[in-house]
Amino acid sequence: MPERAVRIAIIGAGPSAYYAAAALIGQEDVEVRVDMFDRLPAPYGLVRYGVAPDHQRIKSVAALYEKTANDPRVRFFGCVEFGKHITIDSLRPLYDMLVFATGAQSDRSLDIPGEDLQGSMSATEFVAWYNGHPDYRDLNPNLEVEGVAVVGVGNVAMDVARILAKTVDELKETDIAEHALEALKQSKVKNIYVLGRRGAAQAKFTNPEIKEFGKLEHADPVVLASELELDPHSAATVEQDRMARQNVEILREYAARGQGGKPRKVHFRFLVSPVEITGRDGRVAAMKIERNRLVSTPDGYLNAEGTGEFEELPVGMVLRSVGYKGTPLPGVPYDKRKGTIPNDHGRVLNPATGDVIPGAYVVGWAKRGPTGVIGTNKKDAEETVALMLEDVKHLRRAAVAHGQDKKLEDLLAETGCKYISFEEWQKANALEVERGKAKGRPRVKFINIEEIRTALGG
What is the longest distance spanned by two Cα atoms in the chain? Predict the structure, then answer.
């Protein structure tokens, strides 16, 4: 056993970070101390800034993270930016192990003409705006338009389409950001087009997500029966995959309903790809889409190929949700093709040599790419932690055995960092909940650190 606890720094404070911290303090073989750093003032990452505000049950997982955060062996430092306030070089003397839990922070593009027009943005930006992410408070999406295209058929695409389709009465009891609620009150959106380049059998949304569209107060789901016809490969997929089968069944039921009589429509379109966004005065005015057919590749993948048949959708906003990738961190290896930190089951690798970098680890989307749901990160984090525990006995320990806490405080002070502790965040959290009670909402969020500091009395 080492003479002192193994000191571990986790960069990021989202689900994968908390699952890693829980696994570290939950084992009995090695004494650990875990410090978590995040550039945002609030912990929990996507649970706060990514999960839809009308999905409060999913957000309840934060109670598990809070239990970990309250353990005396775990500390949280909010408003600490990697590359600015802390770096690999500044952390190495203070910690024995570094764990990167930085997620997949950027969106993949459509790579089509007109994508840079005003009103074309990533779905992630829109999600961050309505969830109160401080970086996107001033996004100011144009809700004066009647048509919106949502490109992609994963759960994030479902979330943004649903938020656009809901009335303020349906949203006012959620924890949606106040500025978003006010903006959505004035929304003139009538038609939301959700576009999938492959068929309904290949859609990535889950059954509960698509079912919700059949229960909206003022919006009807609209599906073309012709786009639900299955080729032999898709029919086999539906036969073998229960989720795909139920998705298709739900969509067929929507198709049988017809247009419906509600004022808003959510059009689910399949086997179509955007090929161009056209504009007027620098703003999105329409989207040109091409009809696809599915072609099987030698490895069994069903690829979408254009047929040369085109259609124009009258939309004034485009939200793309076609995948995510990590962004490079200063001094940290990066796999540009995968958008991840190169690793072997969680041990970070030197891309030039393929060798393991001692004491460096990765968890979550930064490790495996943007796959799975929030709970998927638990097993992923436990895999990395198991390797960390294997490595403890071989690890070259940080040279400074005593006084690291003072040195960390000095380091943050020298870089002008005024961090927020977990205790401070808990006070801010209680104030958010209290503000929400007055409006019959789960909470009314503080958007940035200035609001939090003011609420906490400076």
Answer: 72
| Six token digits for residue 370 | 């943007």
Q: How far apart are CA 421 and CA 453, in angstroms?
A: 12
Q: Report the C-alpha gap between 374 and 442 in whole angstroms.
A: 21
Which two three-digit tokens encode residue 226?
């012709």
- The helices-and-strands tally (H runs, E runs) of the chain is 17, 19
pTM: 0.93
- In whole angstroms, what is the distance from residue 394 CA to residue 388 CA? 10
CA distance 418 to 280: 45
pLDDT tens per residue across span 171-227: 999 999 999 999 999 999 999 999 999 999 999 999 999 999 999 999 999 999 999
| CA–CA dist 405, 94 (Å, integer) | 8
Which is nearest to 295 in space by CA: 224, 198, 194, 153? 198
The pLDDT, as a whole number, for residue 1 is 42
Token look-up 């994963």 returns 154
Q: What sign does the dihedral 12-17-18-20 (CA atoms) show? A: negative
Domain positions in the chain: 6-105+325-418, 109-322
Residue 116: partners with Cβ closer than 8 Å, 6 or more residues away: none
Tens of pLDDT along 290-335? 999 999 888 778 899 999 999 999 999 999 999 888 889 999 999 9
* Fold classified for 109-322: FAD/NAD(P)-binding domain (3.50.50)
pLDDT of residue 403: 62
Say how far apart CA 412 and CA 185 lie, in whole Å.
42
pLDDT of residue 373: 85
Q: Which residues of 181-196 are buried (b: 16+ CB within 10 A; e: fewer)?
A: bebbeebebebbbbbb
Is 6-105+325-418 CATH 3.40.50.720?
yes
Tokens of 114: 């007109």
